[in-house]
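Figure 3 (text version): structure tokens given as input.
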């Protein structure tokens, strides 16, 4: 009997090892594998943008651009031939829409409707589309996307920014998966918006992620220089957006990311602060933020080490994914323990949908936490975290609308319903 058990255990061990080695080879190869790729936008600033694409053969990249579709008379050429192209267009006007066209001889480029807008110093209103765990191509992903397009009446002038909360290309974020699960299905957005993408755990077999994207490290897009692509700020209109990496960099409270974040938030002068990263501090969906073993403790570390920073600087909204559902807190403060330590004292304002904050007194003014990891996948789970009274197993995405004095966030479901909505109003 003992011998049989030993043999079975050995067999299982061998199978696991073969699977692990196979997977490692697949992901390593997939991360470095070269794939042709349609042009996409990165590093948007108030006066520049970078266009990247990958052609099948070595050639000199060429981009034409202008203020109208008929007048793309400005031309930029690369200095050398390559397959991996990256052309920065600089000296642009702030807050201005440009049209662009990319030429390649070894890649058929879909140039229809290509445009971008530089970041704005001021804006009367702005709209963000936020998707989490969107990297499963198929009907659900497309329907969630379609509902956003319906919401804006298919008018891209009504959308300012696109944020991805991680797990952007299942299952391993390889180059091919990025093409199939992000660049192809979202091509109309890819042509027009910089995907401000946070890394998720599935992107973090991770070599492809920072090859695909270029993020600002010297405060090119606003905020303070982070000198690190893994965390940075983007400022547009009334928004100070912070993108964090909850997956691979140190999540300690005196690590590089935390130290930079404190300085960046302390220097901020924009009225609204939204912070985005993959692994949520509070969740009772597919992942459990009480469980120290869940996601190797990242949920707990983000809560224990970063929530005190969000509290201190009065961050308005924190958006995350990872759990494939929708969960949302009220305006809360000072909760870093397990869910059973959450009490009424942690709730600063008990309204279901209307909150007010001061434009001046920021410290300990409370934060709303939203989990939206259901933009292509769904977890049936308990959804009973006491800090997250608005929770549901529904697929969808977030529409965030910002004016100088209000921030409204809506959970737009896959059926086109607004299943949750709240507004924060800022008063002096
Ligand atoms: Fe995840």
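Below: residues designed for each position.
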């Amino acid at each position: 009997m003992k011998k049989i058990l030993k043999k079975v255990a050995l067999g299982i061990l061998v199978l696991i090892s073969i699977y692990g080695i196979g997977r490692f080879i697949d992901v390593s190869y997939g991360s470095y594998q070269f794939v042709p790729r349609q042009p996409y936008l990165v590093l948007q600033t108030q006066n520049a943008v970078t266009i990247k694409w990958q052609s099948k053969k070595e050639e000199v990249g060429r981009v034409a651009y202008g203020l109208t579709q008929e007048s793309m008379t400005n031309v930029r050429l690369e200095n050398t031939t390559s397959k991996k192209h990256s052309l920065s267009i600089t000296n642009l006007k702030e807050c201005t829409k440009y049209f662009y066209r990319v030429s390649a001889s070894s890649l058929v480029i879909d140039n229809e409707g290509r445009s971008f807008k530089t970041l704005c110093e001021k804006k009367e209103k702005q709209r963000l589309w936020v998707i989490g765990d969107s990297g499963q191509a198929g009907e659900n992903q497309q329907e969630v996307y379609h509902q956003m397009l319906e919401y804006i009446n298919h008018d891209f002038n009504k959308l300012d920014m696109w944020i991805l909360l991680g797990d952007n290309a299942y299952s391993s974020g390889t180059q091919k998966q990025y093409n199939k699960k992000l660049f192809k299905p979202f091509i109309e957005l890819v042509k027009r918006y910089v995907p401000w993408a946070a890394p998720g755990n599935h992107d973090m077999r991770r070599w492809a992620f920072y090859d695909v994207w270029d993020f600002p490290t010297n405060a090119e897009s606003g905020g303070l220089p982070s000198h690190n692509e893994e965390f940075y700020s983007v400022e547009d209109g009334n928004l100070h957006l912070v993108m964090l990496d909850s997956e691979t960099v140190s999540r300690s409270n005196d690590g590089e990311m935390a130290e930079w974040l404190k300085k960046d938030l302390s220097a901020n002068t924009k009225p609204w602060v939204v912070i985005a990263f993959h692994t949520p501090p509070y969740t009772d969906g597919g992942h459990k933020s009480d469980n120290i073993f869940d996601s190797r403790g990242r949920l707990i570390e983000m809560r224990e080490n970063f929530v005190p920073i969000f509290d201190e600087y009065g961050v308005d909204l924190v958006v995350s994914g990872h759990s494939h559902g929708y969960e949302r807190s009220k305006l809360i403060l000072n909760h870093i323990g397990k869910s059973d330590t959450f009490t009424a004292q942690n709730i600063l304002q008990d309204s279901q949908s209307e909150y007010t904050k001061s434009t001046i007194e920021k410290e300990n003014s409370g934060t709303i936490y939203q989990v939206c990891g259901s933009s292509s996948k769904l977890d049936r789970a308990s959804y009973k975290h006491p800090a997250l009274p608005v929770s549901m197993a529904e697929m969808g995405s977030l529409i965030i609308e910002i004016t100088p004095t209000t921030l409204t966030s809506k959970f737009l479901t896959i059926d086109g319903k607004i299943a949750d909505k709240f507004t924060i109003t800022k008063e002096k």
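The chain has two domains: 37-117, 126-427.
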